[in-house]
């Protein structure tokens, strides 16, 4: 089967941890340039990663959002048309203060992301694990870590499953996108380390 390609918005703690895990299993990974007027592809000798404009990211099989969620509206939604997008973002202080507009436990943020990227197929996952745990080595006979996903589009969820299993996690589908509220800060599955019984 052909290897998946991944475009990532956000080369911070989470984006880098996921990228390293993906590269270690042979996936093609490129980060989005933050300054969208640039048209070249850049190679970072220190990390080995490539940075490319949104038009290049739009050609990848999957796009991962790992930026502060209040930067969402800096993205150009036209580059997300028809794409499967993993929303790994959370809203919590100090990124966003709790307020009437953002009551931390009541707003289903992935549905807001879906609303903004209306022509994309948004799947929520990878937001409920700490980036430290993405560096955990489970190759020594230890059990695999389990992630969860929520999303409305079945094909998009199949693609995300391929990716998540390729980077060596188990994955539980918890249903439609709005169920993702259980995966975000304050939700019952946030930060929970599930263990499969058999
Ligand atoms: N850290 C975790 O363990 C963890 C776990 C689960 C979920 N999350 C979520 O993942 C997201 C990122 O968290 P983080 O801890 O990785 O934050 P971080 O270390 O601050 O990294 C965020 C990165 O996004 C970049 N960025 C901001 N706007 C961008 C844009 N429009 N296009 C491209 N890149 C952009 C930032 O660049 P500049 O530095 O140049 O601004 C920075 O490199 C947040 O929503 C967070 O809630 C984090």
Task: Describe this entry's structure for a reader.
This is NAD(P)-binding domain-containing protein. GO terms for molecular function: oxidoreductase activity. InterPro entries: NAD(P)-bd_dom_sf, P5C_Rdtase_cat_N, STEAP_metalloreductase. Keywords: Oxidoreductase. With 198 residues, the chain is α/β, with parallel strands linked by helices. It is built from five helices and nine strands, in the order βαβββαββαβαβαβ. It has a nine-stranded mixed beta sheet, with helices on both faces. NADP nicotinamide-adenine-dinucleotide phosphate binds next to α1.
CA-CA gap between termini: 28 Å
Task: Write down the secondary-structure element order.
Answer: EHEEEHEEHEHEHE
Ranges where pLDDT stays below 50 over 5 or more residues in a row are none
Mean pLDDT across all residues, rounded?
A: 90
Strand order of the largest sheet: 3-4-2-1-5-6-7-8-9
| Annotation, overall tally of beta strands | 9
Number of helices: 5
CA radius of gyration: 16 Å
Structural shape: globular
Major sheet characteristics:
9 strands, mixed
Oligomer: single chain
Structural class call reads alpha/beta
List each distinct ligand once: NADP nicotinamide-adenine-dinucleotide phosphate
Helix content: 10-25%
Percent strand equals: 15-25%
Protein name: NAD(P)-binding domain-containing protein
GO molecular function: oxidoreductase activity
Organism: Corynebacterium curieae
Keywords: Oxidoreductase
């Amino acid at each position: 089967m052909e290897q998946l390609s991944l475009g990532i918005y956000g080369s911070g703690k989470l984006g880098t941890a996921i990228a390293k895990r993906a590269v270690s299993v042979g996936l093609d990974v490129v980060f989005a340039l933050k300054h969208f007027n640039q048209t070249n592809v850049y190679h970072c000798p220190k990390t080995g990663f490539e940075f490319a404009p949104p038009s290049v990211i739009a050609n990848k099989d999957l796009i991962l959002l790992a930026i502060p969620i209040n930067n969402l509206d800096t993205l150009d939604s036209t580059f997300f048309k028809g794409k499967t997008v993993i929303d790994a973002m959370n809203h919590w202080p100090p990124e966003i203060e709790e307020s009437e507009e953002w009551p931390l436990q009541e707003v289903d943020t992935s549905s807001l992301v879906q609303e903004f990227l209306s022509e994309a197929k948004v799947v929520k996952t990878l937001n409920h694990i700490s980036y430290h745990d993405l560096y955990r080595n489970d190759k020594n006979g230890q059990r695999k870590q389990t992630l969860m996903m929520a999303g409305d589009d079945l094909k998009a969820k199949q693609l995300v499953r391929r990716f998540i299993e390729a980077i060596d996690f188990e994955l539980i589908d918890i249903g439609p996108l709005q169920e993702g509220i259980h995966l975000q800060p304050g939700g019952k599955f946030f930060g929970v380390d599930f263990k499969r019984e058999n």
